[in-house]
Specification:
481 residues, Rossmann fold, 3 domains, 5-stranded parallel β-sheet, 5 strands, binds flavin-adenine dinucleotide
Length: 481
């Protein structure tokens, strides 16, 4: 027999030729509740393929933090296949050409993939359908969301634009589908195609190696995602009380695991579905926010780079073409040197760990947009480059939500006050951790250090809150007139 199963037995069609199945891996780097893998494993010997594709996403290529996570996640997934005497195929290039050529090489009957909604992936899925050799079909599965985007619709049959009715509609449509087990048997052809060596992809930073903080903060991969979920089982009931407190470990920190598909939201939902606590109900709504963001980019593919609302943005934002020195302010924000301790702690947490607490993401984003009057797209890009969970849909949707430029009902003139937010959400220890030069200040002083207690190496505020607020409101009114 030409192809032989490496674990378990391969299914064969009449005449004994196995029906090889390619699984196209993207942000679904797991074995459990992996619909594409599950279907492929039932149909024949499986060739799992991950293509590092820097062509299709164009300016949305993976950032440095993404690449670091991806390296470790692929390493972990390869180990999982290895334990079953299997392997994954790594290739670099244009996904469509690579997959079409592999399908030809292994005589694949099907390419299985979980649907992705980033515009470049949707385009690639379309192109792949046409590029596959005769006799090989593309089979798309719903894998990464509680409900497939587009399921929840208004009475008129349109997808929702606003979060609250979207969330209500999803809750009414629940339960989500059943969780799929890891396939019992995954057979593979004996003559698997060649694979690149992961280390040749240079996904990890070397000179300088800035990833020390990430290594300390994260365990990557499917097993780590399940460990985190185990930990979260004892904490989810407290989520309602703790989630806004950056000094506490009060949220799940599952976002990169979810983003890379190391665990599915369906698995998480089924773990907690019988819980009645307010903590779980609020957590479930956050998972629905994740679905909502995909529902938005499904309707507006360019949303992460185009404001939805009609402002005169030439007037709204400070503009280098009109002599505004935004470069320096942008740099101070990126480096966590704005003089606002809560903002600086958040931005430094992001740089060190590739992650930022949700409440602080809102404060830091609002500060850039409204205190510094810098176009939200600069912030979105920085988060995209530095977050390990940087997600085209979730990042874009949240940036436009904070900016008040988006589809939802939040408005630009709602301006967050960073100093009161810092006090209200007891950020003292969080600031001490990430802004060590302020560590000796008292709880009273640390949110807004006055001149007589502020250490020499901590900067003055870039702009006072009241002045920033007035400037933002004026720009807003001018941009509407
Ligand atoms: C300006 C800004 C940018 C953001 N960019 C991203 C991003 O690129 N990727 C990302 O996953 N989240 C993003 N978020 C949402 C949120 O901050 C993170 O999902 C959350 O902080 C992750 O931590 P956690 O896993 O502990 O979340 P938890 O509070 O434990 O929530 C559970 C899960 O729900 C999802 N979730 C929670 N809040 C949101 C939300 N507002 N929108 C969408 N999904 C949500 C995440 O998958 C998260 O892991 C952004 C928020 C803001 C304000």
């Amino acid at each position: 027999m030409k192809n032989r199963a490496s674990t378990g037995s391969a299914r064969t069609v009449e005449g004994g030729i196995p029906e090889n199945q390619i699984v196209w891996l993207r942000r679904d780097l797991r074995m459990k509740d992996q619909p594409a893998l599950y279907a492929a494993a039932q149909a024949g010997p499986v060739v799992p393929v991950f293509v590092l594709d820097d062509d299709r996403p164009r300016e949305r290529q993976y950032g440095g933090a993404h690449r670091w996570w991806l390296h470790h996640s692929l390493e972990s997934l390869s180990r999982s296949y290895g334990k079953r005497n299997g392997s994954i195929v790594l290739r670099q290039g244009d996904s469509v050409s690579v997959l079409a050529s592999l399908a030809d090489q292994v005589g694949a009957k099907a390419v299985h993939a979980n649907r992705h909604y980033e515009p470049w992936w949707r385009e690639a899925e379309e192109d792949l359908r046409d590029a596959l050799p005769d006799g090989c079909e593309l089979v798309l599965h719903d894998g990464n969301y509680l409900l497939p985007p587009g399921t929840a619709r208004t009475g008129g049959g349109d997808p929702y634009k606003i979060y609250t009715p979207f969330s209500k509609a999803e809750l009414e449509l629940f339960p989500p589908r059943d969780e799929l087990p890891e396939p019992e048997t995954i057979s593979q052809p004996s003559d698997m195609p060649d694979s690149d060596d992961l280390s040749d992809w240079d996904l990890l930073p070397t000179e300088p190696d800035w990833a020390g903080g990430l290594r300390e903060f994260w365990n990557v991969g499917e097993a780590a995602a399940w460990d985190r979920l185990d930990w979260w089982k004892d904490h989810v009931d407290d989520y309602e009380d703790d989630r806004n407190l950056p000094s506490e470990d009060g949220s799940s920190k599952m976002s990169p695991h979810l983003h890379w598909g190391e665990i599915s939201p369906i698995s998480i939902w089924h773990t907690f579905k019988d819980k009645r606590s307010q903590g779980w109900k609020t957590f479930e709504k956050e998972l629905i926010w994740r679905d909502y963001a995909q529902n938005i980019i499904m309707q507006f593919p360019d949303y992460p780079q185009e404001s939805y609302r009609d402002y005169d943005e030439q007037v709204l934002w400070r503009n280098p073409n009109r002599g505004h020195l935004i470069e320096e302010d942008l740099k101070a924000w990126q480096q966590g040197r704005t003089g606002y301790p809560i903002v600086d702690a958040g931005m430094r947490q992001l740089w060190q760990t590739g992650w930022m607490h949700n409440r602080v993401r809102m404060i830091a984003a609002s500060f850039l947009i409204k205190h510094l009057l810098i176009d939200w797209r600069h912030g979105e890009r920085w988060f995209w480059d530095t977050l390990v969970d940087g997600d085209y849909a979730s990042n874009g949707t949240n940036w436009q939500w904070v900016a008040g430029t988006g589809v939802d009902s939040n408005m630009f003139p709602r301006i967050m006050a960073p100093l009161s937010q810092s006090e209200k959400f007891a950020a003292e220890d969080y600031i001490r951790e990430y802004v060590p030069e302020l560590a000796d200040l008292s709880d009273e002083d640390i949110h807004d250090p006055s001149e007589d207690v502020r250490p020499d190496d901590y900067p003055e505020m870039l702009i006072g809150h009241r002045q920033a607020r007035e400037r933002a409101l004026e720009a807003y009114h001018d941009s509407k007139s």
